[in-house]
Amino acid sequence: SGRRNWTAAKDLQRYRHNYPGLIESENEEEEEMWNLSFYKNEISFKPQGLPIENLLITWWGNYEILEENHSYIQWLFPLREHGMNWHAKPLTYQEIQAFKNSQEVMERFIRAYKLMLGFYGITLVNEETGELKRAQNWIERFENLNRFSHNNLRITRILKCLGEMGYEHYQVHLVKFFLTETLVEETLPSVKRSALDYFLFTVRNKQKRRELVHYAWQHFKPCGSFVWGPHDKLLKYRPRSAKPQLHQKATDRQETGKKCDDPVGKDQDQSPEVEQKAGDAANSQPEASDEDVKEKISKCVLKGGDDEEEKDLSSEAEEVQGTAESDCTKESKKRKLDANVADAKKGGALKSSADIEHISHNLGECAI
């Protein structure tokens, strides 16, 4: 439609800010924590359910029952809000802490996550990082996802619950997976809108959320119709994947044999060099730092990163070109000065102390 779903945006903003204004009862008795009791295998989910341990074992790979039963998802992934199953109890802050403090419960939570990933045709590659990949039967499972849109609501619930349980890094990988499949691979057209309106904005980590918005913008077609982020900021955004290259030492840069008359952008390595943070620049050139140059550089440094490297933008190149030319001028002066000193040594000793002071001053000005 070319419009953003502002109802979804408002709902997810409330979630990310931990439901401001939410009043919940403080239950001291553990048996009143229905979600915790279910995850401890003490009660069955309602209505007409079974204990979680039986569910995780007998329903594994049973895609038909996972598709048709609509009561279990609110119990497997509880939220601090009511869902469609009014027999399920909203999650409380006290329960969240109890979940995190129980190894038994959290192990079952990961198994529940794997259960649903398998249902969607996804495999958890690394439990530590949350890395994902397609399952072997992904074609069949993706067909189911494209056919039954109610699964998009389930995925939103799962993403929210991951954030509540402290698995924000899992959120990032799951959202990135769906953005890739919908925008890049184009295998899940029926999930695309939910991925942009809902999945993307469940990520509580602000920096990671910005990275994902930028990733979505890079692959959205047509790019000009992207309504989930300001285009002016997206154009200036630079992924952090290039950050390790920004810490290259000055001596390493000199050994590359670059010429000062090379234009900005001609050499791929020059762009990250001129976009270093002011702090990084100060570490490599403490004696000759320029406050104006630092300010320009700091404006070009992006607060974020992504696995996909964005191409250099002409507007940013123009902004930092002056800095690059200044560095080239200093390098040229230094080389000329070194040559003059060498000629002076060949011709004999320097004539006066004033000459020495003048040369020392020039060397200081040319320091990199």
UniProtKB/TrEMBL annotation:
This protein's source sits in the domain of life called Eukaryota
Which InterPro entries does the annotation name?
Answer: OGF_rcpt, OGFr
Q: What is the lineage of its organism?
A: Eukaryota, Metazoa, Chordata, Craniata, Vertebrata
Name the record gives this protein: Opioid growth factor receptor
Q: Which segments show compositional bias classed as Basic and acidic residues?
A: 249-278
GO cellular component terms, alphabetically, are:
membrane
Alphabetized, the UniProt keywords read: Receptor
Segments of skewed composition (Acidic residues): 306-319
